[in-house]
Specification:
Number of helices: 12
Shape: elongated
Radius of gyration: 31 Å
Order of helices and strands: HHHHHHHHHHEHEEHEE
Strand order of the largest sheet: 1-2-3-5-4
Number of strands: 5
Helix content: 55-70%
Structural class: alpha+beta
Length: 422
């Protein structure tokens, strides 16, 4: 090889891994640190120029290196990185074996011709996955689903590694190479297609899981809103009956029945208790949610610092307003209970065509950020909890808005922004 060949080889190793590495980013989160992010690019780029014929030992050595690159160079669940590393190894090596073992494709007999065919397939897979994942959502699956995908990926993996573990030509007589190649070229495309099918399975399972969570969140919002509506009806009924209550109280006092009057007042307080008290904003739904949460926080020994300025009518459905404010305050109150600072700060206003909500609270311990940029629940049963933030983000996205969360130096902050399109 000439000096120019070495330069081209080095550039191919550096830039050749862009397509598969960026494809994997659509399934896994990026890690912190530029050095770690560069590892998958270099490792997968090296596979582009690595000879990988049937019976060669290179795939055996390359497999642990690629898995290590996925563990170091990507974020997210450990199971997700392991399974995706296996799937990517399968389709990359299967196609390399098809190209390198025999020059079955035009121009693949040469070293650089084979590399060009590999790069073309990597680019095709990248474009295919970009089209499939064009919504830009991060792939999120439960641990059980990743375990299932890992089991499904074992069969093509072992079939592929067998080609390197067992060089069948060393144990066969001359003249049967054509039969052996026919067997290999029957199995290798199957491994390649199976690995690509597993990528589609990851996408479909993630969408199915997200759809189930959306239904679950919708049911939770409906139940929550029903509770708030019952409290609203209770308050309206009490207001409507207030004149009669005042008349009854006046009669008891005029009759000298102060004890009965006091008992009557006590029962009225109990009846109006669920809705809380106080006027926070002109929007009735938000006001009742804030009043109820302020009462709950006061009973829990928390300080509610609430300043909200919203009009009576908003182009946001009442169940969505209820879920947005209710979940935000529930999460904040729960985290602040164990923190030294017991204050929960709530700021919201509608101005210049935007509904802005900001909730701040202290917390203790560590907060683990999920691949979608939110934070995982600290409760033991993660399947039953941790849907509040995801539900709030879904509400914000449905109205064309955003929801961002940060957790730093013991302070958690949630900021939601919804365009108000009248």
């Amino acid at each position: 090889m000439t000096a120019w060949d070495y330069i081209v080889w080095a550039l191919t190793c550096v830039f050749g891994g862009i397509f598969p590495a960026r494809t994997a980013l659509r399934f896994l989160g990026a890690p912190r640190g530029r050095v770690r992010r560069a590892v998958p690019y270099l490792v997968m780029g090296a596979a582009l120029t690595m000879p990988t014929w049937v019976g060669d030992g290179n795939p055996l050595y390359y497999f642990p290196v690629l898995i290590a690159a996925f563990l170091v160079g990507y974020g997210g669940r450990l199971a997700a990185r392991l399974v995706m590393g296996v799937i990517f190894f399968e389709w990359i090596i299967a196609w390399s074996m098809i190209v390198d073992t025999r020059a079955v494709l035009p121009g693949s007999a040469g070293y650089w011709g084979a590399a060009a065919w590999k790069l073309a397939m990597w680019a095709a897979v990248f474009l295919l996955m970009r089209r499939v994942l064009r919504d830009g959502r991060q792939v999120v699956l439960s641990g059980r689903l990743w375990a299932l995908l890992g089991l499904l990926a074992l069969s093509p993996l072992l079939s592929e590694l067998t080609f390197s573990l067992w060089n069948i030509r060393a144990y066969t007589a001359a003249g049967v190479d054509e039969l052996i190649d026919a067997a290999f070229y029957t199995l290798l495309p199957f491994v390649f297609v199976s690995s690509i099918a597993l990528l589609f399975a990851v996408v479909l399972l993630a969408r199915h899981q997200a759809l189930e969570q959306e239904h679950q969140l919708a049911d939770m919002r409906a139940l929550y809103y029903q509770g708030i509506r019952r409290e609203q009806e209770q308050v309206r009924r009490l207001r409507h009956d207030m004149r009669n209550h005042l008349t009854a109280l006046s009669g008891l006092l005029e009759a000298g029945e102060s004890g009965r009057a006091a008992d009557y007042v006590h029962r009225l307080q109990q009846a109006s208790g669920p809705a809380g008290s106080g006027h926070f904003t002109d929007n009735e739904t938000v006001n009742i949610v804030l009043a109820a949460k302020a009462r709950d926080m006061a009973q829990a020994g928390l300080e509610a610092d609430i300043s909200v300025s919203l009009p009576e009518k908003l182009p946001v459905a009442d169940p969505d307003l209820c879920a947005l404010f209710g979940n935000a305050l529930d999460n904040a109150a729960e985290a602040a209970q164990d923190a030294p600072d017991k204050r929960v700060t709530v700021r919201a206003r509608a101005d210049k065509g935007l509904l802005m909500l900001r909730v701040r609270n202290a917390y203790t311990g560590e907060r683990q950020q999920t691949p979608d940029g939110l934070f995982a629940t600290s409760k033991a049963d993660r399947r039953a909890h941790g849907l509040g933030l995801r539900g709030m983000r879904e509400i914000a996205a449905r109205y064309g808005g955003t929801l961002e969360t940060t957790a730093q130096d013991g302070v958690f902050e949630l900021i939601a922004c919804l365009p108000l399109q009248t």
